[in-house]
Amino acid sequence: MPPLRPADGRTLAAVGTRWAEMSIGPRSLDRASTTIASALGGMATEANRWWAGMRASPRGLWEDLPFSVDSDRVRSARITSTYQRLERLALAYATPASPLGGEPRLLADVIDGLDWMHRHVYNAEADGAGNWFDWVIGAPLALNSTTMLLRNDLGPERVERYMNAVERFAPAPSRTGANRAWICAVVVGRSLLLGDESHLQGLYRELHPVLDTVDSGDGFHHDGSFIQHHRFAYTGGYGRALLLTVARLVYVLQGSPWQLPDSLGQLLAERCRTTFEPWIFRGSLIGAVRGRNIARRNQQDRASGADVLRGMLWAAEAAPDDAARDLRAAVKGSLVWHADELLTWSYGGPVPGNDIGTIARTEALLAEDQLPARNPWAGTHQFRAMDRMVHHRPGFAFAVAMSSSRIARYESINRENLRGWHTGSGMTQLYDSDLWQYDDHFWALVDPRRIPGTTVAIRSLPEAHEAGEVATNDWAGGTAIGDVGATGMVVDGGPGGTTAVKSWFTLTDVIVALGAGIRSDSGRPVETIVENRKLTAGRGELLVDGHALGDGLQRFTNATWAHLSDGQSHQVGYVFPTGARLRVEQGTRTGRWSDINQHPSMADHEVIERSFVTLSVEHGIDPNDDQYAYVLLPGASAADVREFVSRPSIEILATTSGVQAVAAGSTQAVNVFRRGTFGIGGRDYAGPISAVRIAGEHGERVATIDPTWRDGSATSTEPT
């Protein structure tokens, strides 16, 4: 490495201090704040737990993380986990206001642990067997952070030894998307610790690609989609990690000779608005874009949403003034519903947790009286590049997760998301006043055979069955104008062995779901899952055609409506315009997170239980050209549902395997799944097409797109 000049040493040390203060808080930290005091106490409590269990032996530093195992992947995961525990101890020691701040015995034990790991496990001669992620990203991130926090206590020789090991596995930025952002962070941390300016000087060149717009594959797409692993919608998984990582990197280098251009801060702010914000509802990060992360107990909706809000808060530090103010206002709008997670200390691992530095900024934001909270954007947002749609209204959000020949149905790697079989086959999610619906163990307990929105043959499948496979159908996606949207997909069989065409029409506060051409030769009953809802309050008031139902399984041959309420503020109505053979099940489900996630560092075997209500339309065994129609009325009372049944505000214009269309007054929403011209509601539509047409006194607005992507075109005509 080139020798440091004194001036360089001071500059590098200043940037290193800025890096550390992101985690431990600024020198101006308000220690009198009860929020800060509580966070410091939480950090110390966790550190004391890990410190008490730390016992160096030939097998490892903690009894539950031995390195003497047969599986290389288990062993590499434990390298990351061990360094992460050491990092937590270092944070407690290096935070001046912490109850463990400056504790000499803790420092000695952490240094002993770091030396043990360097001698026996992670060094420049190690073979790197197992999961590459642990060697290149997971372990180095934690080791860099720990070394940065303790650099004055470790001395230059130790620092160089540790960083030589990091350089062995992550010598320079590589890979794509979030993985590249993480490796950039690893390289920057190592460069600051060793005084190697070469990578700092070239950082913009290496980092900018992760924020660039791409036409295919990993990264940010023109419509705001974020894809990782080539064919998975990952805004809320890898995307959220990228956001936090890049935002903090940009911040830490501000004011230094290696400060990144202002344009990068502007671009990051734009990504926050167009890619991330649409997937936040009242502080929760919608599961449709979280990939296999839905199977992680420590990354449920609210925790994942907090990650994105933290990323937006850090991004605001580097954004131009107007953009920064807008980002802070958006975060403040979510904090109305979701402040606790951003004011409570938590450790994040590769995705930075809710550290003292972030908590201090959150508290300052809440105290900023001159900054009004901004409400989230309303309307229907189509993310065509990743086969996703989300529809926002003031009281709810509704999302659809689809798949096609471009986007895979679901991801299951590293023994995670083992039962995600149908989560990309038309899965729908309704977020509303029940803020804990998809938290509090939803994904560990929901019946994976009956995912809302899907039409499937009911059967249990092998773990990770057909994971990572794309569908054969091209037709998936839709279009929108404001808060009116048309979304659809062709289901080509997939893990459930069922074919169908499906549509979802979002008409302001009404959602219409249509399905047709339903066929199966699986020999199993086929159902369309209207709802599978966790009863957060432990009980629900369920009505079908005015009859109150209790626990158990019941069937109705021609149901026309249903209503579900928690007896408090949450309620939703379901209408079946043509009647439905309705299956209703209400009761308790029991399970473990380890049922769906057996990653060595994620498996959780605690037995948990919650109550669920499932509504599904039955199509019988091996149906041939069956169909369904239902309407969702979020927030509707039972009286509202009865009124809708007697005086519907929508009309179904067509529901066949070729065309599905609805009208609401002068508005039409249409999906044509076949080639040819079809007359619908007095208009001609040339398929394949998804179209929205809104007529008004000043003219007509039309939006159309070919969801097969055969010509790649999408046109919108505004009134003249």
TrEMBL record:
SUPFAM superfamilies: Chondroitin AC/alginate lyase (SSF48230), Galactose mutarotase-like (SSF74650). It comes from the Bacteria. One of its GO terms (biological process) is carbohydrate metabolic process. Keywords: Lyase. The active site is at residues 229, 238, 292. One of its GO terms (molecular function) is carbon-oxygen lyase activity, acting on polysaccharides. Residues 381-637 form the Polysaccharide lyase family 8 central domain. One of its GO terms (cellular component) is extracellular region. Residues 19-332 form the Polysaccharide lyase 8 N-terminal alpha-helical domain. CDD domains: GAG_Lyase (cd01083). PANTHER family: HYALURONATE LYASE (PTHR38481). Belongs to the polysaccharide lyase 8 family. This is Hyaluronate lyase.
